[in-house]
Amino acid sequence: MAKAIRFYETGGPEVLKLETVAVGEPGPGQARVRHTGIAVNFIDIYFRTGRYPAQLPSGLGSDAVGVVEAVGPGVTDIAAGDRVGYLIGPQGAYSDVRVMPAEVLIKLPDGVSDSTAATLMMKGMTAQYLFRQVFPLKGGETILYHAAAGGVGLIACQWAKAIGVTMIGTVSTDEKAAIAKANGCTHTIVTSRENIAERVREITGGKGVPVVFDSVGKDTLEASLNCLQPRGALVSNGTSSGPVVIDTMLLAAKGSLWVTRPAMMHYIMPRAHMLEMADEVFGMVLEGKIKSEASQTFPLEAAADAHRALESRKTVGATVLLP
């Protein structure tokens, strides 16, 4: 038996319920994993509220680390006792133990602790695919990154510094600005008292930036477009403030701009590529270029409180549930 968070209707954090569920032996191509850390991501809130569809009743969460207890027939590259993490697969990571498709499991290298890996599976891999695949950064660019003190943001700050990119990061408070700068963000814009586009133009000598990474969405869309150079790119990698609707004629008027809404699934598979991405993320950690630990932890049964904290915009960095 296992403890797991489930929800039977969409809505606020109160719909999340802790239940006891049956966990059987792994079947062909499967592995049973006992979790040591479960990441809380904003996408979990999208599923809970119904912005993203889920077949109810449903588990929640797609991102966790743990130890393999058993494997099913046909599994050859994962074994009992392996430390693993994952970031894709069926919803249900908010649990202490579960059966998973073995093909989505990634072995954790020696030198990367479970506590670090719990903050890196989705968030570190997101930084990798944004900076290395969606808009490949070569070094020397000046970029705008929204929510620089968030879970992905603090990793992005460090990654940008490591590859020689000047990162302008938006934050909501002076306290978050100090944290972002401590993690390598070159310039910060405190959105509660500064105009984003005006500050970006000031920092860049009026040129603007070639790319904006925007996980906020509705509230920052206009500012993001106003920060871009002609033929610049808006990478809309999240919509925490609401969905983005864009008039394509506006893109032409503002300089023939490009917009993409990337999804991890289209950048992570096949498995061999996923493992290469993970190697790069873990390599950054092992080389000392990225340091990451949970800024907030909650017991599994307090998942609703973790969601409330994340939605309040009061969290910094990564939030992790402890089974």
Automatic annotation (TrEMBL):
Protein name per UniProt: Quinone oxidoreductase
Matching Pfam families: ADH_N, ADH_zinc_N
Keyword NAD: no
Keyword annotations: NADP, Oxidoreductase
InterPro entries with a match to the protein in the record: ADH-like_C, ADH-like_N, ER, GroES-like_sf, NAD(P)-bd_dom_sf, QOR-like, Quin_OxRdtase/zeta-crystal_CS
Highest taxon above the source species: Bacteria
Statement: the UniProt record of this protein carries the keyword Oxidoreductase: yes
SUPFAM superfamilies assigned to the protein according to its UniProt record, in alphabetical order: GroES-like, NAD(P)-binding Rossmann-fold domains
Gene3D superfamilies assigned to the protein according to its UniProt record, in alphabetical order: Medium-chain alcohol dehydrogenases, catalytic domain, NAD(P)-binding Rossmann-like Domain
Species assigned in the record: Polaromonas aquatica
Annotated ranges, domain Enoyl reductase (ER): 11-321
